[in-house]
Amino acid sequence: MTGLLDGRLALVTGASRGIGAATAEALAGAGAHVVLTARTATELEAIEDRIHASGGSATIAPLDLTESDSVARLASAIAGRWDKLDILVLNAAMLGTLGAVAQIDGKEYNRILTLNVLAQQAMIAAFDGLMRRSDGARLIAVTSSVGQAPRAYWGGYGSSKAALENLVLSYSQEVGNITSIRAAIVDPGATATQMRARAFPGEDPATLKPPAAVADAILDLLESDFENGRLIAVNG
């Protein structure tokens, strides 16, 4: 299979379902070799099988990003097999329980921040060196509208996405003038995912766009000469 991403290596987190899985399939369809990571091996294997059946190339790496040494182990494994990383898609996230800020459970909030913020920073730090070896690495972080537009009862999740955006945009400025790395933030908007269904249990998923629509937007972004630090919202 050949395409605009032929010969590129991509890493997608949260790739077992939803937007992550759709993005992994889209990147593989464009020619990239995709490393898929998430906690559930069986779900990753199903995505890998679909990619291979379509003529694409993929490798799975089941792990929990919140475990203390998981990101370091992943980076070591990838560096041991490839000499660079061209595309990093930070998609993995935890919604948590929606509720008033004054009633946020501290233990759950700690888990949200660990995955949505600390693990994301660890991923950037661990793969910075491999991305610098690429002739044009791209970092894409998936956010939510509540990261920039606070909403009642979404404070836990929203604050984690606000922190993620700040980290990614800060990183984009740090590397923008001294490397070929470019970073962008993608707000998928209302999409038919399991996370969306938990947040809006009475909503008809048939009225929402599929994860593939977001994956196509990410692919279009990666195939373009986008401005460093760009934020796009996927409408429709």
Structure description:
By secondary structure, the protein is an alpha/beta fold. It has one domain: NAD(P)-binding Rossmann-like Domain (Rossmann fold, 3-Layer(aba) Sandwich), CATH 3.40.50. It is 44% helix and 14% strand. The chain has a seven-stranded parallel sheet, sandwiched between helices. Strand 2, helix 2 and strand 3 form a beta-alpha-beta unit. The two termini are 30 Å apart. The mean pLDDT is 96.
What's this model, at a glance?
By secondary structure, the chain is α/β, with parallel strands linked by helices. It contains seven helices and seven strands. The protein has one domain: 3-Layer(aba) Sandwich (Rossmann fold).
Query: Which structural class do the helices and strands define?
Result: alpha/beta
Unreliable segments (pLDDT under 50, ≥5 consecutive)? none
Number of strands: 7
Question: What is the CATH fold-level name?
Answer: Rossmann fold
Looking across the biggest beta sheet, what order are the strands in? 3-2-1-4-5-6-7
**Largest sheet report:** 7 strands, parallel
Order of helices and strands: EHEHEHEHEHEHHE
CA-CA gap between termini: 30 Å
Q: Per CATH, which architecture?
A: 3-Layer(aba) Sandwich
How much of the residues is beta strand, in percent?
5-15%
The helix tally amounts to 7
Globally, the shape reads: globular
Mean pLDDT: 96
Number of domain units: 1
What is the assigned CATH homologous superfamily?
A: NAD(P)-binding Rossmann-like Domain
**Helicity level:** 40-55%
CATH domain class = Alpha Beta
Rg, Cα atoms, Å: 17 Å
